[in-house]
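Here is one chain, start to finish.
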Amino acid sequence: MNQTEDERRTRLREIDESLDRLRADLPEPSADAGDFIDAGQYLAQREELQGQIEQLEAERERLRDSLGLG
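Its structure:
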């Protein structure tokens, strides 16, 4: 990772913005139990978004550490 400090700070801002969007997109559990297909789709969508969030959070921590913001 041969990024300049400015590039790392820019990427950190991009990650924060992406995390905000992904967290806002996380579907809330439905009050209505619904059917199994809806429940399965909800779970799959939520797990996919959670995986993306975890990856971005890990990258965010690495960038923060490299910038001395840990």
